[in-house]
Write a structure and sequence with these properties.
The complex is a heterotetramer of chains A (504), B (102), C (161) and D (363).
Chain A: H1 3-13, H2 18-36, H3 44-63, E1 69-71, E2 76-78, H4 80-102, H5 112-130, H6 134-152, H7 159-190, H8 195-203, H9 209-227, H10 235-242, H11 245-270, E3 272-273, E4 283-284, H12 290-309, H13 315-334, H14 339-369, H15 381-384, H16 386-400, H17 406-420, H18 426-452, H19 467-485, H20 488-497
Antiparallel strand pairs in A: 1-2, 3-4
Chain C: H1 2-22, H2 26-46, H3 50-75, H4 90-110, H5 125-133, H6 137-158
Helix pairs in contact in C: 1-2, 2-3
Chain D: H1 8-16, H2 22-59, H3 73-76, H4 84-94, H5 105-123, H6 140-162, H7 165-196, H8 201-207, H9 223-238, H10 250-253, H11 263-288, H12 303-325, H13 333-362
Classes of the chains: A mainly alpha (504), B mainly alpha (102), C mainly alpha (161), D mainly alpha (363).
């Protein structure tokens, strides 16, 4: 492409980039507002952030009319797949703003930087979902990672939060270093950074030897870090425990989903052929059997997450391991090389968003009313604060995957996909089922503490829960039940969003 | 034998492995960061070498510049966190940051 | 001539990286890193990437290394007693490292890279500038947001109280 | 490849000899260039030191060095203690080299070498005339900014290795100061780069040839003038010179990072400091004052005069530096940081924006 055509393409692309532009404007507005507002804890910051996020959400919905297109010289793409994830990111950002407003951990801390960084992180996730060039992939991962480091350290006067930030930063920098080395090998192998061209070059040749395998393994390190899969999960329990709880909730949903979006796009475009429209046969690039590799990672991730969760006494840490396990479940759909698998993963991620954020909301409420994160302090909660306990019941049922909750439907889709994919993945379905049984045990332990155990003598009074929290709990819990009974709209949306741009 | 692409790649591989070794063995957070910088430099040598020796135009050089810039940003944030932790702990050894475990 | 220069810079890079890795003092590691960065910059010059070489010196030496040194000095007592960095798991780490090195060497020597003879030594600056403003406009803008965020974040964390 | 164009004749002569391979010639040539640059830097530093003594003496109405002289017939009559600097140099070189017992010996030795080598390396790209650029890099300006970062590392190491609180504090102050002022300085250099459209120092000078009215300092009035002023102040601070000589504030931290240095190693810091002064003089005159080009257009613009103009302009800048040093009081640390971050940096950006908008509007 010659010079003026490139510039013209950049200008034409702006229309497709409106949500990101608004989001960038919002970030700058927050910076300026933070300077102008004299108070450190002005409620205006959260109002601006919320209003901005809602505006961005409308513009994302508006993008559906523009259709699928590759923009900015194939750096990014706008397609239903990325829009689906962008809506999910915005939903989690908005809910996290709500969680943050009530959180007592964050009370008394400056809010200016907090919302600015939160929105910058959201922008990074937007870009992750639509990146189609190794450079944009790398840069947007870095954007998300660096913002996450800072947010995890936000309670900087607290030792645990500082440690969480340090571990997060070190592991993050290390895994992005590994990923870069992998990208550099892939670049030398294919001579391009564009994932479509990488896919074409790799499909055009029969054998790539060890080089492709090594570079893919290094690249998986980067993705694995973002979705916290084994063996790149080390950071996540520490970070989830140490970070402020609203941020923990956000990290366990947003960047994880963004990592999945990127993982799905990268593997299915750069390292697979066919698959367009569902009629063509869909296969992994010769020389690297990444479906089986990811399947092993998926099985290891869910098993390790569940087994270690069994022995946890801190609820945040337990949820951290449970979220590792859920990354393993969601990964099951990615490896199948079928639209059904990807559809199941996308569907599951939305349900996971609701049940996981809901569970963290209960943790935040309990920090407020009970003042503890230990499971043993949750004893008898059902009698002292019935509404949060009941909601927690719904969330944990859903996390386990029991009917009639949305979690059951999500898991059903995943397992159905795995079974349909053929005999080579049966073992994965069996591992997944066994894991669900293990998970049932530790989720039930929390429920048992809340509903069937008596609290200590000193704690028998009923605990007041503000109407604000009750509303928020309803916002999460009610849809989980409804989706458990009538899931067709969301499943349809996910189904329509599977079609991402496959070739230039 | 005259110096070609493979020489540069070998150099980068050695640098990468040295960085990996440092990351695994060092306890001090600052030294671990240094090891990570070695890994990033190794990747950058690869990028620039491919950009020179293969038919790929300048993409590799552009990528290297982006890596350098993001590395600076990440190092700044990581060091701010290290100093903050030092304020709490009076130590920056990773295994003394152990209040989170289980 | 080019070959001799390559071996000189390569030796400098690896030797000083070795100092960085195997030294037990953080400051010596930092000095090792200084010469590693310098050696890598020399390698870039040999690869006809003059702008990248200078950017390497400016950002790695002038930015990251100075930051690291400040970090070391502010986090160690001024008397400089506690300057040792202990090492853990040296034997398994060495085994892993040698294994990875072996695999990488095999990868490099077995793969047929798309080598193309290119001998001209063209100036790169203007071309890089044009690329950043055209093809790579979006990553360039993302990085500027990233730098803004990192600036805000680092300032927030480093601030007292 | 660092190649002193002036010595092309020598090189050609060497390369004719059949016994010399091309490689050997190149190496020889590089060594020769390095020796010449080192000699030049040392000589300029000596001259600057002498000038400083005399300028300060005149500013404060006293005589300065008058006694040191030689018996060599012609030179004997110059007087004014012209050999004082030479005597100083000999004294420094012959002095005992004291290394504190608690110091880190290796780093204590390495630090002055890093500072000195970085300064010399910067000399390699200075344009002394149209065909007198030792190494005509495409990224010359950028190289100059980058190489100065080695100086920062050297200073920090010096402060660290001395194992002395004053040294360390002085080094930290010095490094923080240099790093802070590098930002406005770099941005004002960007203004010049934008105007010229090249990072090559030679091309920057060629852009300004044709008389005093074409110098960049007058272009895009007043934005370039502003950039010039910012760069000048920032360079003062980067040189750690008064009124920004806090790193060496005797009453607070003795002599800063070189408190524990003596003899040859101190001489290296000392030489580097004065060589840096000359360096900054050449950089300012290249970026803003037309470099080697004559202020009268093509009049007096032949090769020897080009060198002459570079020296005249640079020493004029150095003179202003000295003048400021001996008339202004030292600023406080907070004032220093305020100057850099809240005055110079914003104005540097204003200047850059101004030039950018100007260029867009004119097109």
């Amino acid at each position: 492409m010659d010079f003026s055509a490139v510039v013209q393409d950049n200008i034409n692309s702006l229309l497709y980039f409106v949500p990101e532009l608004i989001l960038t404007g919002l970030i700058l507005l927050l910076v300026v507002a933070d300077l102008l507002l004299k108070e450190k804890h002005s409620p205006w910051m959260s109002i601006i952030a919320l209003a901005g996020a809602v505006v961005v959400m409308f513009s994302v919905v508006g993008q559906y009319e523009l259709g699928t297109r590759s923009i900015f010289n194939n750096m990014l793409v706008v397609d239903p797949f990325s829009l689906y994830f962008k809506l999910l990111f915005l939903a989690s950002a908005i809910m996290v703003v709500f969680l943050s407003i009530g959180s007592i951990e964050l009370a008394g801390r400056p809010v200016g930087e907090y919302f600015t960084l939160l929105m910058t992180l959201t922008l990074g996730m937007f870009l992750m979902a639509s990146a189609t060039n190794m450079l944009t992939i790398f840069v947007s991962i870095e954007l998300v990672s660096i913002m996450s480091f800072v947010l995890a350290t936000y309670l900087k006067t607290r030792r645990r939060s500082s440690e969480a930030g340090l571990k997060y930063a070190i592991y993050g920098a290390f895994s992005s270093g590994l990923m870069l080395y992998g990208i550099s090998l892939l670049y030398g192998l294919t001579g391009t950074l564009n994932i479509y061209e990488i896919g074409e070059v790799l499909a055009g040749r029969d054998s790539h030897g060890l080089a492709l395998v090594v570079s893919v393994i290094f690249i998986i390190a980067g993705f694995g870090y973002k979705i916290a899969s084994v063996p790149f999960h080390f950071w996540s329990p520490d970070v989830y425990e140490g970070a402020p709880t609203p941020i923990t909730a956000f990290l366990s949903v947003g960047p994880k989903a963004a990592g999945f979006a990127m993982l799905i796009r990268f593997f299915n475009v750069a390292l697979a052929t066919g698959g367009g429209g569902g009629s063509e046969s869909w296969s992994a690039t010769a020389g690297v059997d990444w479906p089986q590799l990811l399947a092993v990672i998926s099985a290891a991730t869910m098993t390790l997450g569940n087994l270690v969760a069994l022995s946890q006494t801190n609820i945040k840490r337990l949820l951290a391991y449970s979220s590792i396990a859920h990354a393993g479940y969601a990964l099951m759909g990615v490896v199948l090389l079928s639209e059904q698998g990807i559809h199941a993963t996308m569907f599951y991620l939305v349900i996971y968003y609701m049940m996981n954020l809901g569970a963290f909301l209960v943790v935040i409420i309990c920090q407020d009313i009970v003042g503890s994160e230990r499971i043993e302090d949750y004893r008898g909660l059902a009698f002292r604060a019935p509404i949060p306990a009941l909601a927690m019941g719904v969330f944990l049922f859903s996390l386990t995957g029991l009917p009639p909750t949305a979690g059951f439907i999500g898991k059903f889709y995943l397992f159905a996909g795995v079974i349909k994919a053929g005999t080579s993945f049966y073992w994965l379905a069996i591992v997944g089922l066994l894991n669900s049984v293990v998970a049932l045990y530790y989720y039930a332990r929390i429920l048992k503490a809340m509903f069937f155990e008596k609290a200590g003598e000193e704690a028998t009074s009923t605990l007041p829960v503000s109407p604000y929290y009750v509303t928020l709990l309803a916002v999460f819990a009610v849809p989980i039940i409804i989706l458990g009974l009538y899931w067709a709209p969301l499943a349809d949306l996910a189904h329509h969003s599977v079609g991402f741009l496959r070739a230039l | 034998m005259s110096v070609g692409l493979n020489h540069y790649l070998f150099l980068a591989a050695v640098l990468f492995v040295l960085g990996l070794y440092a990351v695994i063995t060092k306890k001090n957070a600052v030294t671990v960061l240094m090891g990570i910088e070695l890994i990033l430099n190794a990747a950058n040598i690869n990028f620039v070498a491919f950009s020179r020796y293969t038919d790929t135009d300048m993409d590799g050089q552009v990528f290297a510049i982006f890596v350098i810039v993001t590395a600076a940003a990440a190092a700044a944030v990581a060091l701010a966190i290290v100093l903050n932790l030092y304020e709490r702990l009076k130590s920056i050894n990773l295994d003394e940051a152990d209040s989170l475990s289980g | 001539m080019q070959d001799i220069m390559f071996y000189m810079f390569a030796a400098l890079t690896i030797a000083s990286a070795g100092v960085m890795v195997f030294s037990r003092s953080v400051i010596y590691s930092a000095v090792g890193l200084l010469f590693t960065f310098f050696g890598v910059a020399g390698i870039y010059v040999l690869l006809a990437a003059d702008f990248v070489a200078v950017a390497q010196v400016m950002i790695y030496v002038g930015g990251i290394l100075v930051l690291l040194l400040f970090g070391v000095m502010l986090s160690q007592r001024v008397t400089g007693v506690n300057m040792r960095t202990e090492t853990l798991q040296t034997v398994p780490a060495a085994i892993v490292a040698v294994g990875v090195l072996f695999i990488l060497f095999r990868v490099i020597s077995k793969t047929e890279w798309l080598v193309k003879a290119k001998t001209t030594f063209e100036p790169t600056t203007a071309k890089l500038g044009t690329l950043l403003m055209t093809d790579y406009l979006i990553p360039f803008e993302i990085v500027s947001v990233l730098l803004l965020g990192a600036l805000i974040g680092a300032a927030f964390i480093a601030r007292k109280g | 490849m660092p190649v002193l164009s002036a010595n092309h004749a020598v090189i050609n002569a060497l390369s004719i000899l059949p016994t010399f391979s091309e490689t050997l010639t190149n190496v020889l040539f590089m060594v020769l260039g390095a020796v010449i640059i080192t000699g030049l830097a040392a000589l300029l530093a000596l001259v600057s030191v002498y000038l400083e003594r005399k300028v300060s003496a005149h500013m404060q109405d006293r005589l300065g060095p008058m006694e040191v002289n030689t018996e060599i017939p012609i030179l004997k009559n110059i007087g004014h203690g012209w050999a004082q600097t030479l005597a100083d140099a000999f004294k420094l070189l012959l002095k005992e080299d004291i290394v504190p017992a608690a110091a880190d010996k290796k780093l204590h030795l390495l630090a002055p070498f890093i500072v000195f080598a970085a300064t010399l390396a910067a000399f390699a790209v200075l344009p002394f005339g149209r065909n007198l650029i030792p190494s005509d890099l495409n990224v010359g300006v950028f190289y100059l900014i980058a190489i100065s970062s080695f100086v920062v590392v050297g200073i920090i190491l010096a402060g660290w290795a001395s194992n002395n609180k004053w040294s360390l504090l002085g080094a930290m102050r010095s490094a923080a100061q240099i790093v802070s002022f590098e930002i406005p300085a770099s941005v004002s250099v960007l203004v010049v780069i934008m105007a010229v459209g090249s990072l090559n120092l030679g091309e920057i000078v060629e852009f300004q040839e044709g008389g005093i009215h074409r110098w960049l300092i007058w272009r895009f009035f007043p934005f370039n003038l502003l950039a010039f002023f910012i760069f000048f102040v920032a360079s003062l601070a980067e040189l750690n010179r008064a009124p920004f000589d806090l790193p060496e504030a005797e009453s607070e931290i003795i002599a800063g990072f070189h408190t524990e240095y003596s003899g040859m190693k101190f001489a290296m810091f000392f030489l580097a400091e004065y060589a840096n002064m000359f360096l900054v003089g050449v950089i300012i005159s290249t970026l803003f004052l037309g470099g080697w080009s004559s202020p009268f257009g093509s009049f007096l613009n032949s090769a020897p005069f080009q060198v002459f103009w570079v020296f005249v302009k640079s020493f004029a800048i150095i003179f202003v530096h000295m003048w400021l040093r001996w008339t202004l009081p030292r600023v406080r640390v907070d004032q220093l940081m305020y100057t850099s971050w809240k005055v110079l940096t914003p104005f540097a950006f204003v200047s850059m924006l101004g030039v950018g908008l100007w260029m867009i509007l004119i097109q």
